[in-house]
Design brief:
Helices cover 28% and strands 18% of the residues. It is α+β, with helices and mostly antiparallel strands. The protein has a single domain, classed as Histidine-containing Protein, Chain: A (2-Layer Sandwich). A four-stranded antiparallel β-sheet has the order 1-4-2-3. The N and C termini lie far apart (46 Å). The N terminus and C terminus are likely disordered.
Length: 131
């Protein structure tokens, strides 16, 4: 899945006190489209941003923070989608979204690193405020 700009893009108007919304149109390239793993990775990536993020496909908008909404879009391979990000950290959130599309959501297919269950429990207690 690569992110490509498609045709002229009309930027949405900024709301008072917020950074100008960012809009990017792209084609979803890949044999499976946006299925559960890429959608879950998108949601996980957006957790550290406060911006509102919407994905539009087939004339329907969905919150990029809801896996059910994203899956309901039925975005298959080759589908055109638009991603709209608005908020104080819109530029950073859009950069993160673009990176996911540009890399074909490859992070979603890497094997998870297994960690010992109680490894470094003293450090964990300190980070959680305990001693």
């Amino acid at each position: 899945m690569m992110m490509e700009t498609v045709g002229p893009i009309k930027q949405p108007e900024a709301r008072a006190g917020l950074e100008s919304p960012r809009l990017r149109q792209t084609f979803v390239v890949g044999e499976n489209g946006l299925h559960a793993r890429p959608c879950a990775l998108l949601i996980k990536t957006l957790q550290c941003f406060g911006s509102s993020v919407e994905v539009e496909a087939h004339g329907v908008k969905a919150s990029a923070r809801s896996i059910l909404s994203l899956l309901a879009l039925g975005v298959g391979p080759g589908a055109q989608v638009a991603v709209c990000v608005s908020g104080e950290d819109a530029a950073q959130a859009m950069a993160a979204v673009r990176r996911l599309f540009d890399t074909g959501f490859q992070e979603a297919y890497r094997p998870a690193v297994l960690r010992p269950r109680y490894a470094n429990s003293a450090k964990t207690a300190v980070c959680a405020g305990g001693r």
